[in-house]
Structures are given as structure tokens and as C-alpha cells.
Amino acid sequence: MSEWLYQIRIKTSEVLSADLRGARAMALSQAVLKIAEQNGMQLVCTFDAFREYCEEAERNDIAQYHLYDWTKATIENPEKKAKHLKSFAFYLGNEQVYSKAHAGIVEKSLKNLGEAMHLIEINVIDSNPANNPQPPS
Q1: Collapsing DSSP states into helix, strand and coil, what is residue 46?
Q2: How far is CA 107 from CA 7, 45, 110, in A?
Q3: Which listed residue, 6, 12, 83, 87, has the most CB atoms within 10 A of its CB?
């Protein structure tokens, strides 16, 4: 049996999202970023990651970026853009997935913030393909 890896994802309010992506002036933004820093992680907005992927593909050979069309359509769709602007993932260095123990520490720290109004969801996602939607072919 293989050991699955994990990722922490959060869904935020529009207000928290804007602050995390900009000024970082809210106490909650600072607390979330401190949790990331204390665990050697960075917080990545899903929309920003998608946009950067498309920009990289456009600078290079789009044909080599198999998810380009799907990703470009996603960021250009107003409803999906709004959704992904409020979605963030914790990366460990450059790694998008990491040990269950590491994910558990971050999850517990986030839950201890108790900010349900702005920190809408905290999810631990595993890398088991059976539990996750697969990229389009």
C-alpha cells in the first residue's frame, strides 16, 4: 500500500481573499500567513496559480502544457474566476503535497483561529486519485 500525500486548502470570504492577495493588513491574514511561515509553507491562491501557469505556457510552447486550454477557459470564466480567487492552498516549499502529519499541524492551527465568517472552509485533501477529480485529458 502506498502512503498518500496531503494538501491543506482553504476557502475564504472575498474580503479575506483580497487582503491575502494584497495589503495583508487584516489580523486574520497575518495569522494565516504566520501559520504558513511557521511550517515552512507558502499560501498560494488557486486563481493566481492558474494564471501563472497560462502565462508560462504563453511564453513557451503552449502545446507542451496539456492543461492550458482547460486552465485558460477556467480563469476567463467569471463564475469560476470568482470561485478560484477565494481558494488557497498551502505549499511546502515548491511541493504541493506533503505528509499527513504536516497537514494535520497546519489544519489544527487554522481551526484554532476560529474565524468562520472569513475562513469559510479548511480542507485536507489527499493525493489518492479515487478521491479527487482528475484533470481533463
Answers
A1: helix
A2: 10, 17, 5
A3: 12
pTM of the model: 0.91
Q: Is residue 135 part of a domain?
A: no
136 belongs to a structural domain:
no
pLDDT along the chain (137 residues), means of 10: 86 96 94 96 97 97 94 96 97 94 96 88 90 70
Asked if residue 137 belongs to a domain, the reply is no
Query: In the structure grid, which three cell numbers stand for residue 110, read together?
Result: 487554522
Phi and psi of 96, rounded to 5°? -85, -20
Distance of alpha carbon 129 from alpha carbon 136, whole angstroms: 13
SS3 128: coil
31 part of a folded domain: yes
The amino acid occupying position 75 is I
- 14: domain range? 6-129
- What is the residue whose three cell numbers read 516549499? 93
Q: Sheet harboring 6-12: ordered strands across? A: 41-45, 87-92, 6-12, 119-126
| Nearest alpha carbon to residue 48 among 79, 81, 4 | 81
User: How is residue 38 written as a grid cell?
Assistant: 511557521
Decide: helix, strand or coil at residue 50. helix
